[in-house]
Amino acid sequence: MKAEIFSVGTEILLGEILDSNAKYIAGELANMGIDVFYKTSVGDNEERLLDAINIAYKRADIIISTGGLGPTDDDLTKETFAKYFNKKLVTHKESLENLRAYFVDPDTEMPLSNLKQAELPEGCTVFLNDNGTASGCMIEDNGKIAIILPGPPKECVPMFDKKVKPVLEKFTNKVLVSKSLNLCGIGESDASEQIKELMLQSKNPTIAPYAGNNEMRFRITASGKTKEEATNLLKPTVDKLYTIFKDYIYGEDQDTLESVLVDKLLKNNMTISTAESCTGGLLASTIINVPSVSKVFLNGVISYSNESKIYELNVNKDDLEKYGAVSEQVAIQMADGIRKKSKSTIGISTTGIAGPTGETPEKPVGLVYIAISIEGKETICKKLMLKGDRQKIREKTVHICFSNLLKSI
Amino acid sequence: MKAEIFSVGTEILLGEILDSNAKYIAGELANMGIDVFYKTSVGDNEERLLDAINIAYKRADIIISTGGLGPTDDDLTKETFAKYFNKKLVTHKESLENLRAYFVDPDTEMPLSNLKQAELPEGCTVFLNDNGTASGCMIEDNGKIAIILPGPPKECVPMFDKKVKPVLEKFTNKVLVSKSLNLCGIGESDASEQIKELMLQSKNPTIAPYAGNNEMRFRITASGKTKEEATNLLKPTVDKLYTIFKDYIYGEDQDTLESVLVDKLLKNNMTISTAESCTGGLLASTIINVPSVSKVFLNGVISYSNESKIYELNVNKDDLEKYGAVSEQVAIQMADGIRKKSKSTIGISTTGIAGPTGETPEKPVGLVYIAISIEGKETICKKLMLKGDRQKIREKTVHICFSNLLKSI
Q1: CATH code for the domain of B267
Q2: Is residue B150 predicted with pLDDT exceeding 60?
Q3: Which of A36, A215, B46, B387 has the fewest CB neighbours in a 10 Å radius?
């Protein structure tokens, strides 16, 4: 079964938006074993869209199109596909109700132009929009299939996941189940190299590596006739990867390093405080983005100046002069200082040269010290040599703080 | 003149990467007045690429393709275009030298397969790659033009900007000059609505609105026979927009709100310290990402717990109990407290309910107070009601802090 992905919209041809729908749908189709040999972007223009439809059906069975379902005159995707298939547009009752529900606010009257969004090709399968006003639909005719979806990614992606995928699974007779294993402390190419043979051999489930920001994940996807069959197929490969990468896997699926860390701190009844120089609040800010953090995070200090390292964190003035602010000694005193001052179980500190200025021959851009002070344990300090621009160095430092802390508790 | 953009690479059809090159090139072509009616993505497959080339030249004069110039056997873009145009591939001396320069490290020997990257269609115009090993090129034949560029955006975009644009300008006889005006405190649709007529009337220069993260910008682009002519054409429109949006424009081109703020603080010999509750370090972290910040930023405190608001910022315990941590009174005391403690000219504070939990009937998710304390002035406090998820509320708070502070100094 071959599919072709269409992105309809003049804004795409003008370079005003990134076509993230097409990427998402392509990835999902690949997982389902549906071939995609072409993607086409075309403007809101009936003649050119019709030409593209004619070309696409010579080489594919399904066109999945996104965009051009809006209320204005230049939105004509549905109309053009209906014309190609020689179908009339008729008002779809549930779509109209769904549409009206978006204009319940007495101050906002629904513009009449919106009514057009409830008109759909006769005989089509309708995909109601849970996140917007435009229904999607599927036309099947003479072995040709058109799946027509709205353009905004927050409407298109959930509609594809919840409503289109089950339909496609029926065509392919497959149910897909995926699991992500999230790794830190190892790069994508390193990790992939280690299981190169396994990835090549694995057809069901498949194993796909994805590089993230300072981390990577493997997505394992199995297909079966039932959800149970697919889940069972998944398990041995997931177990195998857990054995191979036991030192690197920190979580699954939606887990982030900081969410796993906050969970672990909560479970262990531990509290944390931060003392940051080069990361300048990024460490605290990243932890604090985890909603359940308030029982865990007590206090943070951004001691960017030397003076504040002394009066906020009780760093020894002589040591600051002797070793400099970017040193093992100061990092350790910062971590100890914030832990004691805040009466938390854990204190964590960063100090470094994030650049682009401030380096010396002995202390180049990218030199960073992090220290972790835990009640009743010896404070540990790590020296890092990081590459990248200012933001990258700060992000990597935060990431390494989290992965080290996770191993320490 | 019509162009069609090709993205060549199986990884695009598998949904593994976002096609950012195509977006960038489309935007630049739009600015140059070159029409793009289709974009096509095709895999690393000779037959399908040849088919796509044949289709494209029926509807366009230029194909601009990215991707498939790597050293491995499956990279075949150049080879396929050469086949279409019936040209031999010949080794290009300068490309070979450029390639060898990438393997100067005595420990790394250049794989023989890389030699392929220096082979180019005979008679083509070569674009040397300043950021990688694959040269790009242009084939002109019988009124058909192919511009073939490497896939990695950090190679493709600079090559397009520096080497392809001047060539295209020759075809179109135009030189383009752009300026961005960066606005805060006004939304994209609001701002666009205000100059709707002006935007419609403006053909040269054109005015295009772009929505950013909590801000927006207008990009004004003029084309002329010379750079001087284009620059002169630009000026009246830029001046007009400065008059209309004088309360909102904070900078131009690469300026960010925080970089403009740090510049202004430096010029006025002012220093700043931060006291954050709901933003949890994001405020400090964003300022500290500006490289020249070290003379300006003194100290920051993330007082997430009530206790730390008392001992770090000298917030009155009774007021905390009476009004709660999320209140005007506490916000003001936090800003005053951090300013006095850090001996800085400015203290700025945030306290709010970022959600998803923690709200009460009186204090819903999205309620945030910010306060700005400036030496010798009365401390001001603003109450905000923000929408969005936890991260969005925190980002908007930071943005509003910066725009208010910028107006206060």
Answers
A1: 3.90.950.20
A2: yes
A3: B387
